[in-house]
């Protein structure tokens, strides 16, 4: 287990299956706010479902692939970040995030994702870090910009239909390892340490 300080009384640490009850309570608070931007399978509606979400990421960790981390603000789980995928053979990963409204505007996501990219590039040798969002998700697009990412392109109507039957475009942003290492001042996040999930629960 590790705690990485994010400032503002916040820490980043692994989010594991044994924390399913806390994760479920957090999702109940965040559900309406994050529902337009995250996959339906992420939005568990009870503790058993929350445990299954976290087990999927724990299994991903065991395969050296997906990983999930929570952000705690004043001791309360308010959001998190993840490696949606991590393919060390190809040298490509995708990072993502979610956050409760009460924790927005503090720079927590930018600092947390910086930790993930530092580890992916400096420890795992990842060459390309991707960020996937939609054109209407202004907060997500702004995080990508603050991280020094470039917009590679738009995949038109590539997302499944929403509840009202509307298909949405998907934007692909990225930063390359060389760009990350040579870019300007990074957010102050402290010492880089290797993120890991310690509980690898079976399905």
From TrEMBL:
Its EC number is 2.3.-.-. It comes from the Bacteria. Residues 10-173 form the N-acetyltransferase domain. Keywords: Acyltransferase, Transferase. GO terms for molecular function: acyltransferase activity. This is GNAT family N-acetyltransferase.
